[in-house]
Design goal:
Blueprint: E1 20-24, H1 25-39, E2 45-49, H2 50-53, H3 56-64, E3 69-72, H4 75-83, E4 88-94, H5 98-107, E5 112-117, H6 120-133, E6 137-142, H7 156-167, E7 171-177, H8 189-212, E8 219-222, H9 228-232, E9 239-240, E10 270-278, E11 284-287, E12 302-303, E13 310-314, E14 319-322, E15 335-339, H10 343-347, E16 352-357, E17 360-366
Parallel strand pairs: 1-16, 2-3, 2-9, 3-4, 4-5, 5-6, 6-7, 7-8, 8-9
Antiparallel strand pairs: 1-10, 10-11, 10-15, 11-14, 12-15, 13-14, 16-17
Length: 374
């Protein structure tokens, strides 16, 4: 059941009911413009990843700034975006099961929809779904470029799958999916550069072998917020699939730049607004934002602009802050912004974005693909 919005346009930020998902619109828009400016000289396109934001509103804003389309991980996410008017969607993941594939093929009647595959039986199933729906579906071959998750090895196995797709009546060979997910949160530039060099080499070799077999490779997709400029400057990737850049969570901010300082390419834009609900214990303040409000898989959240306050523990509905005797103690009822460690599962906990600018609520956007895991 969709919850009522926690605020109304025109209210002050401190009037927002909590916990709430707050989007700083100035920072968010600056991040979208920054990514567009960084990618423009490279000629590499942005296919922004909607598994982060789960919003057709945000997808449209990204495409208005030059993104060629969106990525999703689930058919249900693709449905939410297509029904919301997004015309070009890649399911950057494998889809298995007749029911899911039938839904995917049906979407091809209202939007350009592509999917990934990494074995021949899966390709046959996609072909059957496309034939039943009377459509042609682009299919990308996923290659494992170091993440050790999905994908066949770069080279002959990938080429064989591409040939199978190209020879089918109801499929189109769409290119290669070459995402190196494990590289995104390697802290040093040297580690990230080394990982993406391996990924780029595998993709490059596969593209050349495809060419030798007479197959064009329209898309080589991959890249994320942690490494996108490495893929964009490789000369082989054509599309970048970054998502978190729009919001910038605490974990990505721990990546280091060339000087060994925290990366500052993008601004923190996404927050969980919380309320101090107890100050009964000395040196402790308790927030109304625990595990159900903010995920901790990538560490506890940071308190925005309050490094003197440490979020040190969570239970279902409580978040525990500690502070020293020299710190100004949070007040009962005070509202504090939390920077989540991982923005994607944070967004999926909420029905609404509360867009704020200059301390006032400006807009409310539904998280239209919330909870869509099928």
């Amino acid at each position: 059941m969709t919850q009522p919005p926690p605020a109304q346009p025109g209210q002050r930020e401190d009037e927002i009911d909590t916990p709430a998902l707050v989007l700083d619109l100035d920072a968010f828009e600056a991040n979208l413009d920054r990514m567009a400016a960084l990618l423009a000289p490279t000629g590499t396109k942005l296919r922004a990843h909607a598994k982060t934001h789960k919003s057709s509103v945000i997808a449209k804003l990204q495409m208005a700034r030059g993104a060629v389309g969106q990525c999703v991980q689930k058919v249900a996410e693709a449905e939410a975006l297509a029904w919301g008017g997004i015309p070009d969607i890649l399911v950057s993941n494998e889809v298995v099961g007749a029911a899911k594939l039938a839904r995917l093929a049906a979407l091809a009647r209202i939007a350009k929809v592509a999917v990934c595959a990494d074995d021949a039986p899966q390709i046959a199933s996609i072909e059957a779904a496309a034939e039943a729906a009377g459509v042609r579906l682009p299919v990308l071959v996923e290659i494992d470029v170091g993440a050790a998750r999905c994908g066949v090895p770069p080279g002959p196995e990938a080429v064989a799958l591409a040939k199978t797709i190209a020879a089918s009546k109801h499929l189109i060979f769409g290119g290669l999916q070459a995402y190196q997910g494990s590289a995104q949160h390697k802290r040093s530039v040297e580690e990230r550069r080394a990982a993406i060099a391996v990924a780029s080499d595998g993709a490059r070799r596969t593209v050349e072998q495809l060419r030798q077999q007479g197959l064009d490779c329209p898309i080589v997709g991959g890249g994320g917020t942690g490494t996108f400029m490495l893929e964009a400057s490789s000369g082989v990737y054509t599309e970048i699939q970054a998502g978190s850049y729009a919001f910038m969570d605490a974990d990505y901010a721990r990546n280091l730049d060339e000087a060994g300082a925290p990366v500052s390419t993008f601004r923190h834009a996404l927050f969980v607004l919380s309320t101090v609900m107890s100050t009964a214990q000395k040196g402790i303040a308790v927030l109304d934002a625990g595990h159900k409000a903010v995920p901790t898989d990538s560490g506890f959240p940071n308190v925005w602009q309050r490094p003197d306050l440490r979020y040190v523990g969570a239970s279902d509905e409580h978040g525990k802050l500690t502070f020293g005797p020299e710190t100004e103690a949070p007040k009962l009822g005070e509202k504090l912004r939390l920077i989540p460690g991982h923005c994607d599962p944070t967004v999926d906990r909420y029905d609404w974005y509360v867009g704020v600018r200059g301390g006032r609520v400006e807009c409310l956007w539904p998280v239209s693909a919330r909870g869509m895991m099928q």
